[in-house]
């Protein structure tokens, strides 16, 4: 009886932990890492369809708890589509993506659209963190959305 009781408790604890995990982090993935990123260090925070990132969100490359660089924008069926790479010390790279690579463009309207999508993705992340009660992260993403919008001026 004692073994069954311990087993039952472990099942209940495991189920409780699974119910409180964030599905966007736990089950969503981006299929192709941005060029130069370590795929094993990526974390998606955004919309999902099944186990694939799909929609607006933020992709982070992390080294432990430190965020090295970020992508803000739209992912379609696990592939980066449109948005902005934010690489500290290098600034922003905006536009369309194919196979994880930023496609260079001089098309100002496409660059503006990329920053608009990125700002929407940052705002959506801020909203998710706000709902979860994480005010510091919500503020970070609201500030990032503002910074992204200001690039269009």
Please tell me about this protein's structure.
- There is one protein chain.
- This protein has 153 residues and is an alpha+beta fold.
- The chain is built from four helices and six strands; from the N terminus they run H-H-E-E-E-E-E-E-H-H.
- It has helices spanning 2-20, 23-26, 108-131, 135-150, and strands spanning 42-49, 52-63, 66-76, 79-87, 91-98, 101-102.
- Strands 1-2-3-4-5-6 form a six-stranded antiparallel beta sheet.
- Strand 5 and strand 6 (101-102) form a beta hairpin.
- The radius of gyration is 18 Å and the shape is globular.
- It starts with a helix and ends with a helix.
- The model is unreliable at 1-26 (pLDDT under 50).
What are its keywords?
153 residues; globular; six-stranded antiparallel sheet; 4 helices; 6 strands
Question: Percent of residues in helical segments?
Answer: 40-55%
The overall strand count is 6
The biggest sheet amounts to: 6 strands, antiparallel
H/E order of the elements? HHEEEEEEHH
Q: Compute the average pLDDT.
A: 84
């Amino acid at each position: 009886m004692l073994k069954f009781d311990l087993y039952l408790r472990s099942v209940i604890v495991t189920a409780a932990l699974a119910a409180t995990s964030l599905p966007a982090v736990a089950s969503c993935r981006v299929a192709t890492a941005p060029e130069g990123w370590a795929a094993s260090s990526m974390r998606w925070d955004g919309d999902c369809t099944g186990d694939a990132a799909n929609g607006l969100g933020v992709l982070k490359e992390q080294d432990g708890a430190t965020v090295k660089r970020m992508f803000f924008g739209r992912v379609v069926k696990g592939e980066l589509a449109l948005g902005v790479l934010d690489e500290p010390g290098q600034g922003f790279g905006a536009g369309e993506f194919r196979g994880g690579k930023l496609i260079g463009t001089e098309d100002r309207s496409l660059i503006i659209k990329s920053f608009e999508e990125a700002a929407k993705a940052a705002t959506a992340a801020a909203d998710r963190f706000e709902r979860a009660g994480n005010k510091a992260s919500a503020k970070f993403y609201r500030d990032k959305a503002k910074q992204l919008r200001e690039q269009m001026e």
